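Worked example 4.2. Below are the chains of a multi-component assembly; read each line carefully before continuing.
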Amino acid sequence: MIRVRGLYKEFADPRHGVFRALDNVSFEVRPGEIYGLLGPNGAGKTTCLRILSTVLRPTRGLAEVDGINVVRDPEGVRCRIGFMSCNTGIYDRMTAREMVEYYGRLYGIPEEKLQSRINEIFDVLQMNDIRDRLCGKMSTGMKQKVSIARTIVHDPPVIIFDEPTSGLDVLVARAVLQAVAALREKGKCIIFSTHIMREVERLCDRIAVIHRGRILAEGTLPELADRYKQPDVEELFFDLIQRREEEVASEVRQPEGATA
Amino acid sequence: MSWKNIRLVFMREVRDQLRDRRTLFMITILPVLLYPMLGLGIVEMMLTFSEQQRVVVVLNADDLPQQPTLLEGDKLAEAWFPEGRDNPSLLRILVDSQVNESSSAKTVAKPRRGQKTDAELLASARVLADKIQTLHGLHGVHSTAAPGFAQDAAAHDSAKAVLDVAGLQEEISQLFGTSGFQVLVIVPDGYAQSLERMQAAIRDESHGQHTSASNRSAMPPVLVIRNSADDKSAVAFSRVQQSLRAWEDAVREKSFITANLPPDLQHPARLAWIEVAREEQVAASVWSKLFPAMLVIMALTGAFYPAIDLGAGEKERGTMETLLISPARRVEVVLGKFGTIMVFSILTALLNLLSMGLTGQQMAAVVGASAKEMVSLEFPGLAPLMWIVILLLPLSALFSALCLALATFAKSTKEGQYYLTPLLMVVMGLTMFCLSPAVEMTPLYSVIPVVNVALLLKGLLLNAPGSENLVVYAVPVLISSIGYSMLAIWWAIELYNSEDVLFREAEKFDLRMWLRQLLRTKDAVPAFHEAGFCFIVIVLLQFVAMTYMKPDLNGADPGLSMMRLIVVQQLTMVACPAVFMGVLLTTSLRATFRLRRPSMQSMFIAVGLALIVHPLSVELSQFLVDHRVFPELPESARQVMMLMKAGEKPTWLMLMVFAVTPAICEELAFRGFILSGLARGGRLAIAIGISSLMFGIIHMIPQQAFNAALLGLVLGLLAIYSRSLFPAMAFHFLNNTIATLHAGEAGRFVADGVFFSRDAEGALRYEAPLLILCSVAGILMIIHMIKAVSKEQDLKRRGIIAAYGEQPEVTQPATATV
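Applying the procedure described above to all two chains together yields the following structure tokens:
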């Protein structure tokens, strides 16, 4: 469903000339699976997911969603994905229903189908009591529900969650995670980024640990625990990152020594 | 592009804005309420202001003649206010005659706090009168009414007199300021008798009796003192002056009658002024000034606030990313937003104008009741209103697109709002320029943004005879405005496609860090903004030089000093900044200034093009001048040209100054540093376009600027095509050489009439067959270059050869890829 091969992304950075946010990233996600991107802040998770959602263009490499190249046909890709992050805001001066309706129409869903779909989603997410409330007057939890409804209104085969629980309280975060799990049951292909270990343990079928733009390890949780002889996910995560940091430090030292 | 999506975005944005109380307030409530309130306030203030009474002191009023009487009680007589245009009661006349002094003391009410009593006023008036008469004496004006003063004055020696004059003037001004009255009239002693004597003398003379001339010249003047720097005094004075003139007419008439002369004689020339402006035309001239300015400003502000909300606001609230991951294309999003902003811009402008117009009409009606001399502010007719709407469309489109682009560029709403002031300043400057009555529509103005709409609207609203011809200009105005709007929309779409604009994060700015960074992280070629900065430096230097570096036209050899200046200016203000910045900011001068060996082919093309382009550019600029697209050359430029012609300098010197120097200096700057910087992003067409625009701008005079911009396109293409500066230099040198020789050659060349001819002034001109040949050859060469460049670009894009800027030293010469 999602295929990423040798993906690079470089940004012009006033301080260092070029900043490499993604460095030869490759992975695949299959339908009915939740793939976790685990990494600290600034690891390149958001960049990677933004490339998949076509808002950023890759510098090099291949990214495909449902067999469609994100560079060649970005509109086609956007029709097939649902994207939700803590950044994807909702309009304050629209009601929940208008908000979801608006996006449904942008996705080109026929009007009758759209109405029944909205009713269905609102039932499932238990948001019928807030359907005509302005989003600006909602609590964070309600807003997050609207956001999820917006993400799945066109019933996309691929759903991308970029740290969907960041900044949420435990109750709301739990509801979001439940919604994600429910989507897997429907056979969606889900990619989920986070820096919270607990979420990974509970939710993800496979994970990739990413740091400084590079995937450090990939596999199911038991596989990783086996490979690195470390049953605790958190310890495993720290170990991997530590090792990468040391690598980077020596990389930086080496060329400096060479030029001096 | 799907219209459905554009409509969806548009409808959502409009609904969103309508739900925003601030927007609603700005576009509807504010204009609807503000203007009537302002109007009411102004009317009230005007009413209270105009009721204010001013005090005029008349000293020695008893000596005024009985017939005709100037004063009536404490007012000027009603008769001296012709046709009741003014109200005599607005002036209170205070006289010092014994009769009135006793009576007025009784009748006049106790003065209010801060006001002086009549006695005080009179006292200060007398002191002032003394001083003034002394001053008059010092000036040597003979006043028979005050013979004592005149003698005193004569006694003063001249050096002291000068001193006294300054001191006295200062003192009088002081006294007048604190006196409490606004105008002082001093009637000289024995005025009435003198007048009678003079009238008698005239009568006698007309009866054939001879009288001495001295009798008549003995008429002393009535002094009227005012301070025109003080508004109150100026207003009171104008009233006094008017009525005194009318009174003087009456005196004259009486003199004529007593002399048995026909009273008609007092206006022997018999002038009559006839006003042909109808009332609605007077109104039109008021509106023609106000409406274009208001329309421009309101269309801008009406576009600006929604644009900030739709652009930077969406970014700030995070809804932008949500929208970007929907299947709507960027074009559709931009067009939807653009439509929304335009609707609000138009609504704001129209509502404001409507409200202002109606308020003005109402105000005129209210004020007109009390003052008859007020202009009527009838609302413009249907045709002008239609023009307002038609011209508002392109104007709003331009502002909406521009504001949307700026708002998209801004990181936050706060940053967005900072862009309003400069934008407003520029637009206001352009509008103010149009308000001047001397500025009229010309072909050049009809393609300048904002100016074109404002000027056309002004002309059409003025409704003067001949304004029908202006309608012709509607075509270029509309076309150019739509063109500018499309450019701005294109810019907005570009911004939406640019990921670093959409995901720009606010970074802390540290000047020291930035400078260190600038010098440390150098590249082979300059960055885009460094190229822009270089241009700004050159322009600023030129601007400064305009005042300090004027050729000495009165010197021994003005031509030579002029030429020296040109060389100095080229070296210090064009070449130096570019070379200096190149050394400082780049690592490879070779790459920055394209100091590579050109291929024979490109040199060949450069020389050929220069020969071909010359006749075309001569004829094109002549054509544009003949059709008055550009204004005539300014006097100073023409003077310089005459000097050049008349100067008869040796040819080698002329060529050094006008061909070699610019070819080296300007090419180093514009095709070297600036073009290298601009072209770094790989967008060569835009880079060439901008660099040639810049090249045009530094040539200042519109005609030359236009020519230079066109040549800049060719030069830029040559530089990019050949990857070398030398062909461009060769082209520039040859072009200037031919132009210099063309201006200086005096009939050495044989005009055969088919290809060449001579115009009335003897200058060599080129005929159609030659021009067609040149155009064809030129177009072929340019197409060849464009093809070669775009092929190379294509290869770079596909990564077959290194991209521009990344690796400037490509081993493969460019021509190999052709």
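Take a moment to check your reading of the output against the notes. Strands of chain A lie at 2-13, 17-29, 33-38, 60-65, 68-69, 81-85, 158-162, 189-194, 206-211, 214-219. The two ends of chain A are 48 Å apart (CA to CA).
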